[in-house]
Structures are given as C-alpha cells and as structure tokens.
Amino acid sequence: MAAGRDAWNGILQSVDVTRIIFSCLFPRDNKKDGTETWTRARSVCKMWRDMADTLYIPFSNQVLLFAIKSGNVLRIWFVLQQTQVATLKSKHIGRKGAVAIAQSLANNTTLTILNINYDGIKNQGAAAIAQRLANNTTLTTLNLGYNYIRSEGAAAIAQSLANNTTLSTLVLNENQFKNDGAAAIAQSLANNTTLTSLNISRKNHIGTQEAAAIAQSLANNTTLTTLSLSFNEIYREGAAAIAQSLAKNTALTSISMYENHIGSQGAASIAQGLASNSTLTSLDIGGNDLDSVGAAAIAQSLANNTTLTIFRIHYNQIGSEGAAAIAQNLANNTTLTTLKLSHNEIGSQGAAAIAQSLANNTAMTTLNLSNQNIGKRYLQTTHNFVINKPFKASSPNKKSGTFSSPFLSWNPPLTVLQTTLPLPLLKFLANNEIVRQGAAAIAQSLANSTTLTTLSLSYNYIGRQGTASIAQSLANNTALTSLHLSVKVQQQLHRVLQSFDL
C-alpha cells in the first residue's frame, strides 16, 4: 500500500464502512430518483449527513419535479446543488413550487440557469424567488416568462436587481405586469451593473410613459446589451424616447420593438437615433404600420451607419417605393449582413431595385423578401433543390422523392435550412408573386454574385421566362450551393437546364 494520508493501515474504520454503504446506496450509474434515500441517509448521524452533503449525483429535470411535488425543501436543495441548468417549462409547479425552489436557492452554489416559464407562479412565487436573488451569487440566467406575474411581482424582482451582482439574463415576457411593474423594472436598470439581456416583450402592456422611463434608464446604463420590447404599446412617443436614449447609450447592441404601433413617425425618430449611435448591431421594427415614408427615413440612416448588421422591417406596408429607398442606400452600406423585408408588398419593381443594389453590395448574406402577395392562386407546396457543384441536371424519381444525380437532391423544406446554416443564407422571394420581371433582375445579380450560397424562390409564379433567366444565371454562377423552388418551377427549371446541356 502506498504511503500517504490515504494509505490504509489495515484497520476498517466507521468512515470506511460509510463510504462502502454510500457506494451501494448511490451508484454512479443509477438514473433513478435517489433523493428520498439521500434524505434518510442524511438523518442517521452527523458523519452520514456531512458525507451525504458532499455527494455529486447529476439528476434530471424530472427528478427535480418529483422533489418539488414532494414539498421537501431539503430534497429540492440537494437536486439543485447537483444541477447547473434547471428547466421546468409547463410543469405547472404553481406558487407553492416556486416558493419551495426559492427556499432551496438560499445556500445553493451551483445553479446558473433557472427556467420556470408557463408555470403559473404568479406574484407570490415571483416575490419569493426575488427575495433569494438579492443574496444569490451563482444564478446568471432566470426565465420567468408566461407566469401571470403582475405589478407586485415585477416590482419585487426589480428591487432584487438592485443588490444582485451575478444575474445577466432576465426573461419576463408575457406576464401582463402593466404600468407599475414596468416602471419598477425601468428604475432598476438605472443602478444595475450586471444585467446584459432583458426580455419584457409580449403583452406586458408597456405604454409610452413606461417606455420613456426605460429610455431614461438606458441613457446612463452601461451594461445592458439586449432589450426586447416586442408586442407592447409604446407608440410613436415611446419610440421617440427610446431613439433619444440611443444617441447617448454606448452599451446596447440589440433592440426589438416588433409590433408596438410606432408608425412611420416613430420610425423616423429611430432613424435619427441611429445617426448618433455607434454600438447598435441589431434592430427589429417589424409589424409597426410603416409606409414608404418611414422606410425612406430608416433607409437614409443606413447609408451612414457603420455598425448595424441585422435589420428587420418585416410585416409593414413599405411598398415598392420603400423598397427602392432601402435599395438605394444598400449600395453604399458595407456592414449590414441581414435584412428582413418579408410581408411588405414590394412587388416586381421593389424586387428589381433590391436586386440591382446587390450588384454593388459586398456585405449582404441574408435577405428575406418572402410573402409579398400571399394568398394568390399560384401558391403551391414547397420542395427544395440542394445543389452541390458541379451542377448537373437529371430526372426526378417520383417514388423516392430524390433525383438520380449525386449532385442534385429533392428534400423537404427544413432539410436545406438545417444543413446550410450557419452558411450565408438568402431567403429570397419565398411565398411571393413577384413574377418574371423581378426574377429576371435577380437572375442578373446572380450571374455576377460571388458570395451568395443559398437562394429561395419557393411559392412563386415566375413563369417560363423568369425560370429561364434564373437557369441562365446558374451557368456562370460559381458560388450558389442551395436553391429553393416550388414544385412547378422545379419542373420548368429541369427542362431549361437540359436545354443548356449543363
């Protein structure tokens, strides 16, 4: 036997016997719920308790749920002590379950991510968790979305943020905490120095005054980088306040204001804020009733902005004029990589303008122009071509759903998206009726494109001429690796490609 502190002297001591017993009680490969056994073992004596508290047995979320339903706080603590990520989505633990978890957080030193969403914890549960947050030093992510937390619960959480020094991500979406709760959260942002991501989106009834309070806190906040305010009611006044804070804030990199009724005037305010901002990289103002005037204001800011990389302006009514204004400024923009313009009724002229701007743009990798005139009679079931160079056409096998060529296959829609990400993705013209004029303009851009790898033309009636234009551009294109087409256009393209003898 090797010498040293752990060398066995031939005498079997009680601690050795306990280790042997524990190895039988808690085998490492045991996947069953051992929390009740642990509780009983811990109650035998001090030595057993000390040894039990040092055990490491990784438990599943299901075991955590069993412990919560038992109501035994000690068992819950033991499971959480072995866990770094706990997820209890839609487990209906309610207020009592949330209170039990909160009590278990008091001395927890391992849990970093806690997801309790869709669980109906309400104000009482939120307040209990908030109380423990003040002293907890390990939790970094807390998700309490969809829990019917009203103003009192939101205020309790806001108060805990003043003393917490580790929480970096907080999700409180769809809790309907309304004015007082939103105001409390806004006030906490002024003094908190650790929170980097805050989600208070979806039906929290945050209005213009609350948006102004949030904006005021943002002006001095130096740590928050991501803010989601989607699906609220900040209107143009709230957007103006947020825009004003963007001119002073130097930390925020992503903000979402989807469906907040800001209108074109609100968009114009945001455009002014962007002119002075040098940190924002992602902006979402989709679903806000913008017309061509609002789009033109935003477009003008894109010309000089050198930091924004992701811009979403989908589900608006910018039309062909708004698309043309955006296209005009894309030509000189060297930073924007993702642009979402879907559901904007830009038509053939708008599509042509966007296509023309791509000829000079060297930064764009993701463009979504889907659903411009959805509901037309030409909409069909989508399939996809997955193209791997060298490009070669062959006949489809209808029984197997694949092409006989090893270079060309026919797959369900999601297959292409899953296998090509995170390659540069251009979801182009899906679910549109931009017809052959738009397709011809896009084809012209394709001929010279050296960066585009994925092109989606699904749900289109681009006609034979449009199909021919696309096919002809493929003859000279050396970058495209994935092409999405509707079934009817696939058949047309197959015939055209054969005529080119590719």
UniProtKB/TrEMBL annotation:
<protein>
    <recommendedName>
        <fullName>F-box domain-containing protein</fullName>
    </recommendedName>
</protein>
<dbReference type="GO" id="GO:0006913">
    <property type="term" value="P:nucleocytoplasmic transport"/>
</dbReference>
<dbReference type="GO" id="GO:0005634">
    <property type="term" value="C:nucleus"/>
</dbReference>
<dbReference type="GO" id="GO:0005829">
    <property type="term" value="C:cytosol"/>
</dbReference>
<dbReference type="InterPro" id="IPR001611">
    <property type="entry name" value="Leu-rich_rpt"/>
</dbReference>
<dbReference type="GO" id="GO:0005096">
    <property type="term" value="F:GTPase activator activity"/>
</dbReference>
<dbReference type="InterPro" id="IPR027038">
    <property type="entry name" value="RanGap"/>
</dbReference>
<dbReference type="GO" id="GO:0031267">
    <property type="term" value="F:small GTPase binding"/>
</dbReference>
<dbReference type="Pfam" id="PF13516">
    <property type="entry name" value="LRR_6"/>
</dbReference>
<dbReference type="GO" id="GO:0048471">
    <property type="term" value="C:perinuclear region of cytoplasm"/>
</dbReference>
<dbReference type="InterPro" id="IPR032675">
    <property type="entry name" value="LRR_dom_sf"/>
</dbReference>
